[in-house]
Structures are given as C-alpha cells and as structure tokens.
Amino acid sequence: MTSLESVHETVLDKDGVRLTVEDAIATVTLTNPAKRNAQSPALWRALREAGRSLPGSVRVVVLRGEGKSFSAGLDRQAFTPEGFDGEPSFLDLARGSDADLDAAIAEYQDGFVWLRRNDIVSVAAVQGHAVGAGFQLALACDLRVVASDAQFAMRETSLGLVPDLTGTHPLVGLVGYARALEICATGRFVQADEAERTGLANLVVPVDELDAAVQDLAGALLAAPRDAVIETKALLRGAASRSFEDQRAAERAAQARRLRDLAGLAD
Q1: Can you tell me the distance from the alpha carbon of 73 to that of 52, in angstroms, rounded to the nearest whole number?
Q2: Which residues contact 137 (CB under 8 A, 6 or more apart)?
Q3: Which of 33, 53, 136, 248 has the fewest CB atoms nearer than 10 Å to its CB?
C-alpha cells in the first residue's frame, strides 16, 4: 500500500451495526438484511456506540442498510411477552415507574441524536422500506439520498404508539405540520417521488446508482473547509428557533470567528 492509498478500518461490528472508516468518511451499515434490518434496543445501543466511536477525523457519516430495505422498523418481537433475550420486554417497561420508562426511551433516542452533531454531516442512503424506526433513522440524518424504490411510512400510530425516536421534529421541519400529521396519523407510504417533491429526499436516483450518488455527495461535502461547514450547519440548525434579528447577530458572530481564524487571529 502506498502513502496515497486510503485505509479502510472496521471500528465496530455488533448487534446489527457495522461502523467502518475511510479517511474523513465513516459508514454505518445496518447488517441484518434477512430481517430487513429490523431494529431492537441492542441495535440502538450499537448505534449510540458507533457515534461515540467516531474518530475525530471523520467529517461525513453515511448511514445505509444491507439488502433490499434500509430498515423495516422495529422488530415485532418487541411486542411479545418475552421480548428480546436479555432485555426487559416493552410490557415490563410499561409496568415500571415513569422515571424508569422515560430513562429507557431516552437511552433508545441516544442512538439517533448523535447524527445531528455539528461537527459531522450525516447522509442516509435509503432503498426499499424505511418504516417506523427506519423512517426516523433516515430523518435523524442531515441529508437523504433515496433510491427510486424507497418507501417511507410512520406506522407507530397504527400500533397505538407515537413516533418517539426523535423523528417528529425533523419531519415537521421538512414537510410542515399538516403533511407531517397526515403522514403519521394515516401511516401511509410516501413514495420516492413524493419524498423528493416535499423535501424529505434531497435526491432520488435509480436503485443501482444509489451508492455512487452517495459517494459523489460525500465528496462534495468534503470540498469546503471543515470549520466553515461546522459553523454553517450550526447557523442553519438554529435558524428556526431564532428571530430574524437574532439570526443576523448569529451570522455576524460566526463570520467574525471565521475571519479571525483565516487571519490567524483566533483565540
């Protein structure tokens, strides 16, 4: 291997999640295609561990699923009395205290929230089904590149539940309250063309071009200086919660930091 060749390293491979790193790009892969990458608490903990295991050199995280589906959602074994081996069943959790139940759900959410960190840009590569928890995992990413066969659905309400894996905030931000309510309350499928039209998908490509399109996007995201991208992401993420004047002030402060840094005057 020459010094110009990149090093592809497997950092984590457990409970249906594999994290590999190649230079500034990390790939998180769901690795249970036989179950259409159905999710479980163990998988959510592995996702959280993947986020904590990212080397500091990583700038772009690609999230993908092996096989024909990105993720078909929560493994239905969760709703059986016995649940998963070595895990409290959802019925057991429901019988616990409010504090214990809240803590358990917060732990599940931790597998999703790190994808929004300002120091990375996360890209979901979505093919086939992205249902329930799978839809929310795609929504946890900053960007979504979608194959033409992708189908999104939020099926929690049909099970008597609510989406609780951090998907409601980005969904409303992307498509607006009324459409988000309709998607969640009906549980209907959103096809790739509608996803692109409504802003759920940044790009729709043929199935056999998905990997190449994601690679192209990752390369484009790496073209700008890292600190400028970090500051820009922070500005955009905070814009919805700021007034126009507060956003103007945030822009000035961020630009001052960048100018001082470029001039070698940063603290």
Answers
A1: 23
A2: 39, 47, 63, 70, 71, 112, 124, 130, 165
A3: 248
CB 5 within 8 A of CB 11: no
In angstroms, the CA 266 to CA 258 distance is 8
Q: What angle, rounded to 10 degrees, do the helices at 41-52 and 98-113 form?
A: 50
CB within 8 Å of 56: residues ≥ 6 apart? none
Which amino acid does the sequence have at 133? A
pLDDT digits 0-9 by tens, 203-255: 999 999 999 999 999 999 999 999 999 999 999 999 999 999 999 999 999 99
The distance from CA 128 to its chain's CA centroid, rounded to whole angstroms, is 16
The closest alpha carbon to 164, from 121, 135, 144, belongs to 135
**CB-based burial label for 71 (10 Å; 0-12, 13-18, 19+):** buried
pLDDT tens track for 42-58: 999 999 999 999 999 99
